[in-house]
Amino acid sequence: MIAPPLVPLLVPLLVPCALPPLARRAAARLTPVAALWCLTSTTVVLAVCSLAALGTLTLYGLLALPAFAALGDLIHPLSAAPALLPLAAAATGALAVCAWTLLRSAVRQISDYHAAKEAADTQPTAGDLCVIDSPEPDAYALPGSPGRIVVTTAMLRSLSPAEREALFAHERAHLSARHHYHLAAAGLAAHCHPGLRPARAAVRLAAERAADEAAATATGDRRLTAQAIGRAALASRAARRRPTIAPAATSGPVPQRVAALLRPPLRRGLVSVASALLALCTCLSLAGAGAGALTLHHNIEIAQGERPGG
């Protein structure tokens, strides 16, 4: 049986499991920009709350052991419910796995980014455009100061002049809106809880859809933008590895994006049932993590202030 003080800590660990269907619905019901911000913020908050819950459970378990209770200046260890030590052990293991995968992902992303940046720095640029001589068709938005559009000669040969401009407009939209921050945040959050992994794909789709709409507005031709994205995606099926945080017009479910561009833009609002449910999930996770931390703090104060016979 789980002790009542531990129940709130289970909420942040269970809520992320409801995110995948809500994320798909939010992406379909909200405007791309609203969906991007809503999904990114929800994913990050749920990840932080799940880590906080795991950390609190770990502290509960450690302070229930006499040796660690003495290190914390507790007069006696925290009372241990039957399920406390197994939960604490599982939480400690989960935290260790999260720390390792987060570190590995961050190192890989940084390494890929620096490799791409070094390759781009060796090539001549024309404004924000960097052309790399390569037989592999590829194009992506490389963030930085300044941000650049990296495109290979093979990709340029695969598109008509008008399609190139549509592709460049798409990548410029990524740079101006700083979509790489959303992708990096969702990518790291996905390592904090298994339920958040599908949200990473939903965030990338929302970022691509936002750039699609921006490119369609810039070119004034939705069909041309859809054609450019479709042809670029077909050409870059065997593209080389690019940085994870570098958005590209050829990533994500391209047929779904092309179909959306071939339809008139829908008038979708900033709020929907899906966004309201995502907000509810966020509030529940925050409340559970906060209540668990406050209860732990209260129990520690009691354990520190009690005296034998008091």
From TrEMBL:
The chain crosses the membrane at residues 6-23, 35-63, 83-103, 270-291. Binds 1 zinc ion per subunit. Gene3D superfamilies: Metalloproteases ('zincins'), catalytic domain. Its cofactor is Zn(2+). One of its GO terms (biological process) is proteolysis. Keywords: Hydrolase, Membrane, Metal-binding, Metalloprotease, Protease, Transmembrane, Transmembrane helix, Zinc. It comes from the Bacteria. The keyword Oxidoreductase does not apply. GO terms for molecular function: metal ion binding; metalloendopeptidase activity. Residues 127-185 form the Peptidase M48 domain. PANTHER family: POSSIBLE SENSOR-TRANSDUCER PROTEIN BLAR, SLR0241 PROTEIN. Belongs to the peptidase M48 family. This is Peptidase M48 domain-containing protein.
